[in-house]
Each structure stands twice: as C-alpha cells, then as structure tokens.
C-alpha cells in the first residue's frame, strides 16, 4: 500500500547540506554514519570512486529519495537496491529508466557489471571480465546522470532518508517499540498501542493488520514496508503528534535492513517456529535475522529487550541483547520459572482470563498483581505480558497498566470472536503449525463440546509445512475441515493432497475436505453443536483470497457472519 505521507518537497537539498545539518554531538549522527560508510564504499569499490566523483555527487541538488523508478520525479535521487529474486534485465531497465530523470543514482549493485551483463541468474555475484572494464566504464559515463556504486548503502539509507525529511520540517519522532517473532507480533503491537493510549500517550501502529493512529488503521501490503515507506510513515506520525509507534519487525524486514535508522527503544521477542523457509535457508538463519533487532550496532537507541524465555530459540536473542548491554526483561507462562514477568496462575473462561501476575525486577522489587483480561487464549496471556512489560519500560506504572487491561480489545483477525446465539465462532490468523497448535490448545481450555478447525495452506510457499499444518490441526481439534487458503498460482486440490500426506484412517474419519473456502465455513457452521467451538484459521484480518494473480473479496469474518445468519444462529 501507499502510506500517507507529507507532500513531496519542492525545496532541493544536497547531501553536503544534510551532513552539515546533522548534529555533531549526536553519537550516531548522519555525518559519522555517512562518512564512515561512504569511505568504506569507496575503498571497497573495484573501480575506485575518486574524491572528485564523490564530491560532485555530494553537491548535486535533489528533492527526495526514491526506490521505485516508476515513481521517480525529476531531480529525485534514485536508489537501486538488489532484489531477493534477482533479475539483471529488470535491474538494468530500472537503471536506464531512472537515469533520464534522476539527479543522480546510488546503486547497491555494481552498475558497470550490470550494464555489461546480458544474462546472469544472481546479480549479487556479478563479476566483470577484465577485458570489459573500459567498455563498461564508457557505458556508465554515457548515462544521463552520475551513478555511484555504494554496496553497503543499506547500512545508512534509513538514516539518510529521515535526514532529508527532517531538513524540510524538523519534527519530534515517536518512541518506537518493535516486536519480532513468528507469532504474536500483530497482537502485541496493538496491545502496546492500546495500553499506552489508555494511559495517556498518543499512539500509532505499523504492521500486518494496518498502519496509522490507533483506531484509524489503513490496510498494509507488507508486515514491514520498504525503508523509504517506513521512514516516511515514522515522520508522518511525528507530524501528527504520535508519541509512541508500535511496529512489527519481520525477519524479511530485518534481514533486508528496512528498519535501518528507526529509533527503536524497546525490542520484544515472542517465539520462533517454522515459517518463511522459502526465504531463509534454515531455522538458524531465520533466528539470526530476528536477533538483529536486539543488536545495538543496528539500533543504537535500544534500551530494553523483552524476551519470551518459554521459547526454545530465546537464547540467541538473550545473548545478543546482553552483548549490547541492554536492560533485559523476560516473561513466562511457567510459574516455576524465574522471569521478570510470570503468569503464576491462569483461569480461563469464555469472557477471557484471570491472571495472577508475579514480577521480579533486578533491583529485588517483587510484586503480585491480579489482572482480568478480556482476551481469549493462553498464548494471549503471553502476548499481554510482553505488552505490559513494554509499557513499564516506557515508565508507566504497573498498577496503572493493570487498571486499563480490562478495556483491551484483541487485534482484528486474532482470536476474533464473531457473535452467535449459540456455539463459539472464532477467526484467527494462525497460519503456521505452531500458531495453529497454540490457538487450538488455548481454545480447548474454554470448550465444553467439540473443537473444530477450518484451515488450509497458501500456494507458492513452503510446501514442507503442509502436512505439518494438517497434523497440528488434527492433534488439537476434534473435527477438522481442510480447505483452500490463498492458492495463488497452485491448484487448491494439489495443496490439499500435500496436506493429507501421512494421515491415518482415524484422522480421515475426523476430517472433511472442501476446497471452496466459503463452503467449508458454511459446513462447519451447519454441523457444529451448541457447545462446540469453531475456529476459522489462516487468513485472519485479510479481506481477499488470491487465485491466479487475482485478489477476490473474501473476509473470513464476513463470510462467517453470513453463514451464521443463514443457519439461524444469530
């Protein structure tokens, strides 16, 4: 999506002016960051950018930065970044297209090699034959605007973009709390925004379920936008007076440094389970990407790390946070563990949960507090502990926080209850085996009858998790309905076949297979008894179903409401 930002500036600026405007006493000022990184880029460049070339670019006036050649305005600076799915021809087209309008171009890719390459599968590894050096250099010089190869531009691009925004109109940026992990990011970020708003702060959120001031979110297309969109959004929230921004930090966003330059003060880790292995090579690489959020080398404003010690991958986050000398607080649902925030006792009901909270800070201060939460599910207790810890890290008293917890609302599509006269019908985003297991385990404690799970798996994604999803559903639910999710370009029946691998006869007897998602939801509504709980999992807040590159209107909560009406259950 396109984020709401201020109008493009008509006032030009030079890189030199941005550097001069940077505070010299700021420990991570743009002057220091830019000088160090550009010096490294010059020294590492195979064609040795000269000081004259660098000075020429530094003093060229421009309006703003742009990452999309299609949106480039005259006299913008175009930043050409590598793609995760490399395509030399496409990158070269972007370069040529931008060169006609840009004031100058900063390229993460070696432009000489790109111009001289006709067919290479991965432009990150392009090498230039010795006999082509002169020809490539001639092609580069012939372009309508200067192009500089800056291989480490991601190390300071966010800082550079924010400096440009601030140069036009300085604003006070919100304090940033960032949440990472496979599951829980959306709920925790929205709970943080609610808690801070209810205790007197002006808050905003950025993530999967939407971006904007809390209560007025605009749908997002990515969990973590590109670095330009993220910095523009941060700036816009500052202009609107937001004091706090709670955002989701995806592993993709962290790995690609889309959050570089964000003033993250508090970092939260939830959990790690199989997901995104179509992007990351393995779970170790996935965990390492998440751990970057707790590294002060990447986020110099960090003060606190809040980490779920019930998760098996927590240690790498703890080690990284301790190495950065952060204040480290932990949280747990295990009453026998030693953690900063512990749910010593949890009593579930269909109205929510009652929690006996025990806190133990490093200064020896211990407290016991009874909390009533309207959020369903055991894992939402963990989400609440993380959000409360973040609010305490901001200086809000625990008692003040506890007093407003009963007013909290769950995130849209996260354990969202759809009203009915009988039975209990839930829409949830759980789309990984671990998330589905947690949702079902949590709902089982509330269930008097049978627990139903309606879910599928997305197409064009990690096929290895498909049978794992089916087994997670069968292990946690009494009745399972397998259906389509977002098939994308795959045949839904083929996806369903993958999900059924390894199923036993007994499991088949508890399973109904219906490729059409609407029909699957209607089947569950018509078959579920008055004491049953039905969870429609996998899509949550999404309002579409993607089939063969087309997004059709499809909102699980709306489909479920209509099915309940047709069945006379509302």
From TrEMBL:
Subcellular location: Cytoplasm
UniProt source species: Psychrobacter cryohalolentis (strain ATCC BAA-1226 / DSM 17306 / VKM B-2378 / K5)
Binding, meso-2,6-diaminopimelate: 461, 485-488, 538, 542
Catalyses which reaction(s): UDP-N-acetyl-alpha-D-muramoyl-L-alanyl-D-glutamate + meso-2,6-diaminopimelate + ATP = UDP-N-acetyl-alpha-D-muramoyl-L-alanyl-gamma-D-glutamyl-meso-2,6-diaminopimelate + ADP + phosphate + H(+)
Residues in Mur ligase central domain copies: 179-391
Pathway: Cell wall biogenesis; peptidoglycan biosynthesis
GO biological process entries: cell division; cell wall organization; peptidoglycan biosynthetic process; regulation of cell shape
Keyword Transmembrane found: no
Signal peptide: none
Residue ranges annotated for the Mur ligase C-terminal domain, each copy included: 413-540
Binding annotation for UDP-N-acetyl-alpha-D-muramoyl-L-alanyl-D-glutamate: 67, 69, 223-224, 250, 256, 258
GO cellular component: cytoplasm
Top-level enzyme category: ligase
Superkingdom of this protein's organism: Bacteria
PTM sites of type N6-carboxylysine: 290
Name of the gene this protein is made from: murE
Cytoplasm among keywords: yes
Listed name of the protein: UDP-N-acetylmuramoyl-L-alanyl-D-glutamate--2,6-diaminopimelate ligase
Motif position, Meso-diaminopimelate recognition motif: 485-488
A Pfam entry, by short name: Mur_ligase_M
PTM entry text: Carboxylation is probably crucial for Mg(2+) binding and, consequently, for the gamma-phosphate positioning of ATP.
Function: Catalyzes the addition of meso-diaminopimelic acid to the nucleotide precursor UDP-N-acetylmuramoyl-L-alanyl-D-glutamate (UMAG) in the biosynthesis of bacterial cell-wall peptidoglycan.
Any GO molecular function: magnesium ion binding
